[in-house]
Amino acid sequence: MSIGTFTLRPLDPLKDAELLHGWVTHPKAAFWMMQDAKLQDVEREYMRIAAHEHHHAYLGLHEGRPAFLMEKYDPRYVELVGLYDPEPGDVGMHFLVAPTDRPVHGFTRAVITAVMAELFADPPTRRVVVEPDVSNKAVHALNEAVGFVPAREIDKPEKRALLSFCTREQFEAARGVAV
What we know:
Blueprint: E1 6-10, H1 17-24, H2 39-51, E2 55-62, E3 65-73, E4 90-97, H3 107-120, E5 127-130, H4 137-145, E6 149-155, E7 160-167, H5 168-175
Parallel strand pairs: 4-5
Antiparallel strand pairs: 1-2, 2-3, 3-4, 5-7, 6-7
Helix pairs in contact: 1-2
């Protein structure tokens, strides 16, 4: 069964802030750590990301409608500085699926698969790095489903995180694509 078509566009911090505010403050987005954020806080955070040379935010669309958020970053400069030894071609990633009253079975897995395919569509990307909260069991299962392998727990200022990596080959193997 096909879930449909996913596309990405650069996030517009001002135009998209109201939409994002509803997503990041929703109870299902607790691990995004913006539960108490005001609209201006969301605008400010995504303006900061938009201005950053090594951190980018994208609005994910499903059949042309906003459905998820993706951030990609260079872990040499953002999020993981000093917490592991980056390799050439490492790209960091965060994603958040929009809350819904009508969940579609397999949708979140389809989103993370689309996100990973987008990241690996860039030839210099050799490995995707993630650092979810150690207690976020749902995202650990999703990460494993697309090929991530946990490396170790690390302490970030805001959380205890599970540092995990996924190479292009691991992603293709998880998708059942011959490498």
